[in-house]
What we know:
The chain is mostly helical. Among the domains are: 12-45, no CATH class; 48-190, no CATH class; 278-397, no CATH class. It has 31 helices and no strands.
Amino acid sequence: MGDILAHESELLGIVKEYLDFAEFEDTLKTFSKECKIKGKPCKSAGGSVRDSKSLIIQKDLLAAFDSGDQKVFFHLWEEHVPSSVRDGDCVAQKLEFYLHIHFAIYLLKHGPGRPDKQELDERISHFRSYLETRGAALSQTTEFLPFYALPFVPNPMVHPSFKDLFQDSWTPELKLKLEKFLALIFKANSTPKLVTIYQENGQSNKEVLQQLHQQLVEAERRSMTYLKRYNKIQADYHNLIGVTAELVDSLEATVSGKMASTMLRASLAPVKLKDVPLLPSLDYEKLKKDLIWGSDRLKAFLLQALRWRLTTSHPGEQRETVLQAYISNDLLDCHSHNQRSVLQLLNSKSEAVRQYMARLINAFASLAEGRLYLAQNTKVLWLLEGRLKEEDKDVIARENVLGALQKFSLRRPLQTAMIRDGLIFWLIDTLKEPDCLSDYTLEYSVALLMNLCLRSAGKNMCAKVAGVVLKVLSDLLGHENHEIQPYVNGALYSILSVPSIREEARAMGMEDILRCFIKEGNAEMIRQIEFIIKQLNSEELLDGVLESDDDEEEEEEEDHDAMEADLDKDELIQPQLGELSGEKLLTTEYLGATAGRSHRRVARNGRRLLSPGLRARKPRTCHTPQGRIPR
């Protein structure tokens, strides 16, 4: 009781502070009146003093903003906005970036007449210094990328990339954001002591316990992984010691003229790989019948099982046998002229069927012979292009359609068809907001765009919307996903061979934007950008490739097979109890009459089933776009 009385005045002050903060006005009046009647003083928690001081600071910051006094503003900003907020809060970092732009261009917007050159140069120099220090953290963000060229542009007022900065509405909107931010910051700083006590001793303890538990689980998992690695290394060590001892003994024996031991020869002999059994053949007539007339759930499970058979088979004879069986039995009805076909499942009303059909086509397209099979029917391309533009609900379905199209773009006639169908315009429109795209969609969209831009017809399409294309590609140069950089570089280098696109690029200050990345990029990135700048400053009227690259004769192609793991990610359907799926579904319900022998025959002779006139060529693959830039 004595301890309570000793701190009673402070406790009452804490209660009073909270009631005032939460705006319990009537309760606060009653509480204060009762404390006065009982003669109990309330020690101030300092809330009202803090509030009045906060208002003064806010007014000073806004006054400095309006007058363009950046020294006063950033002195107050750094003194009163906590460093943890300035360094760790993305909203604060973005706001600070725009505030630096505001002060850098203040004289251009608000100065009477022609601005003083020395003062303007000082402000631009201050902004450049910020970009190289604190501002460097946002250099990989698409939103801010164009502003890194601002210090190098002679007259930003007429530059198309900065026209929004000089709109009358830009400064008031920024000031409104600043006012809201300051109100939140200073309100957070004046958090009542009662709330602080609760947070420190209540909810935060639960969060700490949860974090500790999660860390413990992760530590145990890592411990088991390391233990397994240790046991394997230890076993390998003992085997190595044994082989070494045997080797020493055998060498000594060999010096004496004796033969090396049998055990040593066995240990040094190459290990013979086990034969991989071929998968049993299937009744494809029954399979295709159920794919067309079965229930949507059955269709989805069959499409999944057929895809798994392709993706999980061993590369080599087993996978080739599976693929050739699919092709020889025209699994996807690429040669069918019936009104209802397996290909039509791409437009099914069922989301699962649409997605799983797209996955299966993408799996086919991942293999050179699969691409050749699909390319024989132009309807496949039309269906994929239509699905790509219409699919807005299922992200994975669209990813797989896009993946298949990118792999199709390795074939020249299909490239021509995609360009003619205006796919470049769709890609450019989609890439305007790269942060809204999954990594898969972003990477395959940029890779597909690059492949199409390698053709003269594709470059001519880009020339129709040169400003938009260049803006999109220059924004993508600074994207945080570094996997797309070689494809962006390849597309830029290719389209800059067109004189009209070069002129547009020079007008928008493309060289200044490119030079910003030379400071930050790795050696390969720098090398590619230097070639792009050289192309930008070229005066050639036509690139040598432009006049001859529209010949539709198919080049010879090396097999390029890459079965990516994403084909089987995030499965949409799961079997219920007693429901068959995967290989078990295929071998239980659709086993062929001649298992084994027919498959082996297909594996050996399957290539004869393909049209002899259609030969594969070396893919313009998205994996080596830098090959299109001179070394």
